[in-house]
Amino acid sequence: MASGSEDDGGNTSGAAWRLVGPASELSKKPCRLMFSPLGRDSDVCLFYVQRQFFAMDARCAHSGGPLCEGDIEEADGVLRVFCPWHDYGYDLKTGKSGTSLEQQVYEVKLVDGNVYVKHASHLSLRPFPANQKN
Ligand code: FES
């Protein structure tokens, strides 16, 4: 049984696998905002699209728009989330846009029905106290 604090020694600097929760629950919405104790800039979107999970920084690289509220579209086999503020689109797998802007993406894995995201901090579906006013 996975413990939630396992570290597989991956080479993403300072990152470890973070238990987020059961896939059966997390797959009920197309996006969940996951809070980081490191602050707003480290929060992450967990997308569930076409039966796959994707993780990406939650604030748009352009001006900080909320990507969890963006539309998701597929074109030419590429899934993209479109920022609700100025409509830049980011590839859910790579974080690349058609511009020089790029979102950080994170590896996701499923173990025993639970979703893990490789990230530098713990991730929570509830705000940490310092984030709660946001
Ligand atoms: S803030 Fe996202 S496109 Fe401008």
UniProtKB/TrEMBL annotation:
PROSITE patterns: RIESKE. Transmembrane segments: none annotated. It comes from the Eukaryota. Keywords: 2Fe-2S, Iron, Iron-sulfur, Metal-binding. It holds the Pfam family Rieske_4. One of its GO terms (molecular function) is metal ion binding. Signal peptide: none annotated. Residues 17-117 form the Rieske domain. This is Si:ch211-212d10.2. The lineage of its organism: Eukaryota, Metazoa, Chordata, Craniata, Vertebrata.
